[in-house]
Amino acid sequence: MGRLPEVASESVTGDEVMLTFDLEPDQLWFEGHFPEQPVLAGVLQTHWAVSFAAQYGFLSDGIPSFPRIKFKSVILPPVELRLRLWRTDRGVRFSFSSESGLHSEGTVVVTGADG
Q1: CATH code (residue 75)
Q2: CA of 8: how far to CAs of 54, 108, 115, in Å?
Q3: Cα(63)–Cα(98) distance, rounded to whole angstroms?
Q4: Does 4 fall in a domain?
């Protein structure tokens, strides 16, 4: 799960990042989930949120947790998917959306690796 999708565009302003990805049904993100109707798995959405938040310096090393997360609608390819990340006093908020509307949103917080 270490690979990340290619960023089609990015906008960084202070404590907020907006990324877009062009996702197609034949990409590895959709393999096996599900063959008859590919969907982007929730575990990948959370992995991408954590990975990109860390890449942009919004999260430090440690163990991520999700005190708040909502999956509102499935992400079906082909899609131009937007990931919005923004810092809060408690961690990082994220949302995935597309032309179809909001797909998921949540909060990520990190605790130290030693507890």
Answers
A1: 3.10.129.10
A2: 19, 24, 37
A3: 29
A4: no
62: region left, alpha or beta (phi > 0 left; psi from -120 to 50 alpha): left
Give me the domain span that covers residue 31. Answer: 9-111
> Residue 86 CB: number of other CB atoms within 10 A?
16
Number of domains composing the chain? 1
Amino acid, res. 22:
D
What is the reported pTM? 0.92
66 contacts 106 by C-beta, under 8 angstroms: yes
Output the tens digit of pLDDT for each of the chain's 115 residues: 468 999 999 999 999 999 999 999 999 998 877 778 899 999 999 999 999 999 999 998 889 999 999 999 999 999 999 999 999 988 999 999 999 999 999 999 998 755 4
